[in-house]
Fold each of these.
Amino acid sequence: MNTRRKLIAGNWKMHGSHSANAELLAGIVAARPFACDVAVCPPFPYLSETAVTLAGSELRWGAQDCSMHKQGAYTGEVSAGMLAEFGCRYVIVGHSERRALHAESDQVVAEKAQAALGAGVTPIVCVGETLAQREAGETAAVVKRQLSVVIHTLAHCASEMVVAYEPVWAIGTGLSATPQQAQEVHQLLRAQLLAATPHAARMKILYGGSVKADNSGPLFAQPDIDGALVGGASLKAADFVAICRAAG
Ligand code: PEP
């Protein structure tokens, strides 16, 4: 266990409705306070009601993506500046679903992270290898390449991001990386950050990939794991709260 305050962020993906969100948020609010930082990342249309529900609490909210552009003719996109107006503290960038389904390159991810920081929103930058890449022994090379583009683009601001290691083969599959497998990659990422910024020791590196209440404790006990980005298990208050408790 390290001394960095842990962060648990729920990635709701494209799930939710007015009524489902109200129930989920009420369950999380009722479980306060937490001994870790807690954030929820609902779909864009629900940011406003989430902001209203969580205003005045220490709970934070974020978005699941942002544009790399400030404004303009980019139909369907949402700028980081708009997210900041909704009080977003975080924005997830480079999630593997966006890399795979929307062909987002490392450079696009890096520019989204830069746009987020420019608007005062903390990017949660996702990196991770596919199963084929892991089996080919390419895990280290893949995550280092993904992170290096972001570090290079953010330059002296790199220490302001949160990094999330999310092995693609563990997302939504029920197959979590073992604590040792995750720690091995987190250690690599920490070393890469240390080489780039004097502030790396205080930076948060989250793990994501089928995190549940019953597998989170051993993950959070690893020296370089500073919390979790949680997908499926963030949709039920009891499950999400149990993970937040495990982090405290
Ligand atoms: C995610 O989508 O970021 C994620 C980690 O999903 P899950 O927890 O469902 O694997």
Amino acid sequence: MVRSPIQTSEGKTHQARELDALVIGAGFSGLYQLLCLRDRLGLSVQVLEAGAGVGGTWYWNRYPGARCDSESHSYCYSFSPELTQEWEWSERYPGPPEILRYLNHVADRFDLKRDIRFNTRVTAAHYDETANRWRVSTEAGETFTTQFLITAVGCLSSANVPNIPGLDAFEGQWYHTGQWPHEDVDFRGKRVGLVGTGSTGIQAAPVIAETAAHLVVFQRTANYSVPARNAPLTTEFKRYIKENAEEIRQVMHSTVNGHPFRIVDRSALETPPKERQALYEAAWATGGLRFRATFRDLLTDNAANETAADFIRAKIREIVKDPETADILSDFDHPYAAKRPPIDTDYFETFNRDNVKLVDVRATPIEEITPRGIRTRDAEYPLDIIVFATGFDGMTGSLLRMDIRGHDGLSLARAWAAGPRNYLGLQVAGFPNMFTVTGPGSPSVLCNMPVAIEQHVEWITDCIAYMRANGLERIEATDESMDEWVAQVNAAAEATVLPQAKHSWYLGANIPGKPRVFMPYAGGMAHYRKICDDVAARNYEGFTLSAARVSDAANKRFN
Ligand code: N01
């Protein structure tokens, strides 16, 4: 490792670590990116991670009921057949402790932790044109310089605590699910308010209701949910996973969402109603995201989608005993799966409990938080604990909270003032040698994440290997390729029902003032993979690559 003197803005001089690549974040993406760049390409790499351990999203999201909605045998890396064979999942859907055990196992197995600096939050990354290097600063005042900067910061890492007047004066305790304490929160004997009914709130409500004295769920938008049907994995299924690992991988790589099952090539509209009902019943009994794969046209045709919506509405009315509560829970304002479709364990059943109440805050909005609880237009609900399951500043939040500056001091915040713009979700014009793993403009959150992550990390690794092999030092997306890609991202979204969910975080609609832009690429993971492969095969078409050498300026002081 080389150190060179750096002049900070305060005028102090200290040593900066010089690296080939710096990776921000030690979740699924950061760990694999470190392994690829360090062990396959032989680069000097440092990972900086804000948390005290590996895990990224799963390090922070430890709220009651948290569980992954991808099936465990697909929610893992597939790059190492040995790793696949040696690891054994215990349940159909893993919870945070098991996912963290898995990621720690991976980090230890591949000796990754020695190049990860924990408790280290990156605050800024500035590109130095002359040196062709990024200068990266941390909250603690350390500085690193690096040729390649890779953000592996996750899509859902910047918690959104709504700006409701009075929170500061609340006399009870409050928590955001995405920043859950590492100690247990004791709900016993407590009156708990849960704000938000996205995937998180739907998972948390049944578990909180089991121990709390009373739970009030504040729902703004009714949400579809399908039973997860979580269960321990049978010995037979565990054997199936091992024996068919390669075939499962092939399925995940060839499907739209990267899951280990295919969308059935059958139209909901063309299927006779009785048969369609039977298929939905079977899918409901199977549970999980497989429900969405029952028909091929659910996300592309509103009338087809309505058949799924009708089925779920009827299920809610069947499960929930109080008709008024059932009406509020099933008063959907968007097509099924236009928002990320939650899967649950006894969510709707929870509203049959005597200690649970649903409040429709679309009809009676929350006006303030008082010292004693939450006051809506119609009533005050006394509470000891408030749980905000109010989501995240998704996809761009965790990038924009760092001060990232490219050419001529251009900030990423300014470059994205009208919404995120990039090429392939991987690079932004004006920010050379910076790659965003599963950034906006890539399938990311519409895909089983590890599949999307492995594809990005491998593409970035291959790209850097290509540069090294060809004496190239700098890669930057062009403006034209970025314009073209943004148009493709928009067209892909418009071909689906996804943009019809007006309150969706996919659109940035959950954050006041955030530009309304549909962020993930909805054209399908398999198609996206092919596009990226083709770009690489055409010598990184759409990027400008140059042989600008890292000059001596790398060793001189930055201003
Ligand atoms: O967040 P969300 P999430 N007053 O943004 C409501 C992933 N995930 O944490 O819809 C009242 O979806 C908001 O209401 P509305 C997954 O990708 C995965 O639940 O804006 N309510 C909504 O009900 C998921 O999509 C897993 O009207 C307010 C809720 O809060 C993503 O994380 C598990 C409000 C936020 O829903 C985010 O899910 C969990 C306010 N001021 C999460 N502000 C699995 O793998 C917001 N809301 C299973």
Amino acid sequence: MKNSSVFYKGWLAILCIAGLLETNAYAQTITIPVETAKTAIVLQVAPNKDVNTIYLGKKLSNPGEYGNIPGVYQQGNNYSGMYNSAYTPAGSRNLLEPAIAVTHADGNNSLDLKYVNHSVTRVSDDISLLSIKLKDPVYDFEVTLYYKSYYNEDVIEQWSVIEHHEKGDVVLQKFASANINLNAGSYWLRQYHGDWAKEMRPEETELTHGIKTLDSKLGTRADLFMPSVFMVSLNHPATEDEGSVLFGSLEWSGNFKTDLEIDPQDNLRVISGMNNYASPYQLAAGQAFETPPFVYTFSAEGKGKASRNLQSWARNYKLVDGKGTRMTLLNNWESTNFDFNETKLSELLKDTKKLGVDLFLLDDGWFGNSYPRNSDHAGLGDWQENRKKLPNGIAAIAREAQSNGVKFGIWIEPEMVNPKSDLYAKHPDWVIKQQKREEYYFRNQLVLDLSNAQVQDFVYHIVDSLFIKDPALAYIKWDCNAVIYNAYSVHLHQNQSQFYVEYVRGLYKVLQRIRAKYPNVPMMLCSGGGGRVDYGALQYFTEFWPSDNTDPIERIFIQWEYSYFYPAIASANHVTDWGKQPLKFRVDVAMMGKLGFDIVVDKLSGNDLKFCQDAIPTYNNIKPIIWQGDQYRLSDPRTESVASLMYVNADRSSAVMLNYLVNYRYDEGSKRPILLKGLDSNKKYKIKEINLYPGAKSAINATKVYSGDFLSKVGFNPVVNLDRTSVVLQINVVKE
Ligand code: DGJ
């Protein structure tokens, strides 16, 4: 990081100066700024020891001025401590939506939190960790707020740790991760909803006074109807390159709740955390309760910059092997479903080789004997190879993959059980269900109780024994298709209200164990599509499955919206037979992220096969730019006929521009040049069309030279029309 040590020293000096300056005017206030490259969040300790957030926005050139930001206590009204609290406690002076609410050991419901101290730990050149300790003046109850700032990425993670030493258990009624405060004339929320095959549908509206809640109570597959990602623009909806906007998301793979409340003074309070629905949590004295991080980034340069912040943070710090590479693959779900045997798989392995991808991924249907997995009605839980389909076991398939020169991966759904399974008969107490009620299924299955350490062990060993049997196993697709109905854990006895929290913690314990032993094995996070795409889970995965909807037109929209929050390297995009578009279009769309295939290679025409075989080396050539480059959205499919985006490498010498026709009405297409972004104005570039279908001639003159300045101001027309529905361009600097 440039000048980081100067920044750090300066930062500490500022803390002292701010404290001193304010002593005269307002008696003992402490100002605590958290700065990243472009953003500052400023906390202030008021004379009464309340900790408030007084600023979140563009960082100031002179950090000494943070102390001049008006604090809430100066307003001289009766509401001190009610607005802008850095972590709003319930039951005392605060009457707005709380971040934390508790019932003390003596049954009292009031909480107040006062500043005790704070400290900053420098984790690396890029990362600082601020912790602020708060304590109730009456009860032996404390909360530590954490702010982990990633300077270069402009990203902050916030969470809290709650502890007490009361005489008896305290019940946590609400336990948010973060309580953020924004101040603007109006607030525009972009939120997402969905269902199976309908992930990431956006809605953008102006927030009104009162509370807007985004939440999930589904337990597992928690994002099925709504993910926790959202954006809030200040004053007017931010565009791609203009406006102030905050992107946020909870790093948690279970029930979440984000309340966006405009208070009577027109501040926006964003309170996000695990959902407290059915979850009052009994906390013993001396036990620490840690909430998951809420991650956010603020951009004063529109949504594009915010998304690049999150993407680079995810690659640098969150995803497994985010800076590494990925394998192209052929999956068999769309082509065979449950219907395959050794002979068919042997052909598919040859197809994998013929296609030229790195790996064959065997999907659902390979296991179960008493109850063979021939449909989604049976077998989940019995993770032994089906003897009829695979008489020589997985090891034989893996060996055959090896002799074809391709790698082998496998699908599992280890958290689940079908009532038609040996596991269900043997361990009914491991199954989440209401003992006295009729069972109710989602995709004919139930969820295993991961709050139970024995179940965690079982799930861990499913994965571990796959690797023990086949050490060359190179890839796991981890699916999770059911939500939790009739939530009840035999294991938790009287502590049922801890269930939703302990389930996810149990899942993470398993994933941590897997990662401790197999740190780098690529794993795809799937949940019947994108039912579990969140950074809590993604810290254990290399990629995610955005949706079972692989119709390429749909995928443009789905992948577009995911890309605001997640980097291209994490988005597993497979070419299938869904949709009406030609193969070239489908491949071009999958190239927006990590390319894969799920097609019947055998049925491809000569030209289609040749096109795919050529597309893979083409993709291999450009994938470093797509995976590690900066992404710029150029033309929005929701408002234009053509969707267009580009990726630019770090030194701006190479870029890839992807263009797709999304409106198929008469004479639609790219009528005007599209303005390119991210290039160096002073450099000269040539533009070449790549990934052409066999026999096709490009409409683009690849010898012409353009300056970056020209391309960003006048633009370039990729010539997308009804005859050229998708166009991939490689932009390379001209060496002088
Ligand atoms: C749902 C996944 O999203 C699909 O890709 C496939 O793996 C099926 N499950 C298998 O049951």
